[in-house]
Amino acid sequence: MRSVHVTGERLGLREVTVDDVDALHAVYGDPAATHHLPFDPRTREEVAEIVAEAITAAAATPRRLYVLAVTDSETRAVIGVARLHIEADHPHSAEIGLGLRSDLWGRGIGTDLIRLLLKFGFKDLGLHRLWGARSPANTAAQLAMLVAGMVEEGRIRHHVPTPAGWRDSIVHSALADEWPAH
Ligand SMILES: CC(C)(COP(=O)(O)OP(=O)(O)OC[C@H]1O[C@@H](n2cnc3c(N)ncnc32)[C@H](O)[C@@H]1OP(=O)(O)O)[C@@H](O)C(=O)NCCC(=O)NCCS
C-alpha cells in the first residue's frame, strides 16, 4: 500500500491511524459539526470503528476509500478529517467529504482543504471528476466548495435518509479539464 502524504501551505493530509480516534471524535462527535450531516454525533466507539474500517480499506486493491487526517502544517495537530471515495462503477469519479473542528471554522481552512483534496484527486490519483453533496442549508460547505472552484450541479431529491427524515442534496463538482482554476 502506498501511504498518502499531501502537503499544502497550511494543511496536510495523511492516512488516519488508531492514535487519531480522539481527534476525529472532536469532529464526528460534535453536534455543531454533524448538524448538516446525515447522522447524529458519533460516539468514541463508533469513531474507533470508522478508523478501523478506514485502515482496512486503505489496504484494498484497488483502493477505493481514502479517509485522511487533516493536519495543521505548523503544529502537526489533527484538526479535521477528509474522505475521498472512488465510485466502483465509475472509477474516474470520486465523492469527497470533509469536516473540521468547529473552533476553527470561518478562517478559510475549509476552502483550503477542498483545494488540497482536488489537488490530491486530480494530480496524485489521476481522477477526472470530483464531487461533493451537501445539505441545501449548509451555507459554509456551499461557499467553501464554490470558492474552491466546485460548480453547483443541481439537486438530488431525497438523497439521504437522516434521523430527521429524507434530505435533499445539492451536488457540486470539479473536472480535471477545469483544474487548477482557483
Ligand atoms: C464545511 C466546513 C468544512 C467549512 O469550513 P470553514 O473552515 O469554516 O470554511 P471557510 O472558512 O473556508 O469558509 C468558507 C466560506 O463560508 C463562509 N462561512 C463559514 N461558516 C459559515 C456559516 N456558518 N454560515 C455562513 N457562511 C459561513 C465563510 O465566510 C467563507 O466565505 P468567504 O470565502 O466568502 O469568506 C466546516 O463548516 C465544517 O467542518 N462543517 C461540518 C461538516 C460539514 O458540514 N462538512 C461538509 C459536508 S458537504
From TrEMBL:
Coiled coil start-end: none
PROSITE patterns: GNAT
Cross-referenced InterPro entries: Acyl_CoA_acyltransferase, GNAT_dom, Ribosomal_N-acetyltransferase
GO cellular component: cytoplasm
UniProt-recorded Gene Ontology molecular function terms: protein N-terminal-serine acetyltransferase activity; protein-N-terminal-alanine acetyltransferase activity
Keyword Transferase: yes
Protein's UniProt name: RimJ/RimL family protein N-acetyltransferase
Transferase as UniProt keyword: yes
Domain of life, source organism: Bacteria
Higher taxonomy: Bacteria, Bacillati, Actinomycetota, Actinomycetes, Streptosporangiales
Keywords, comma-separated and alphabetical: Transferase
Organism expressing this protein natively: Nonomuraea dietziae
Boundaries of every N-acetyltransferase domain copy: 11-177
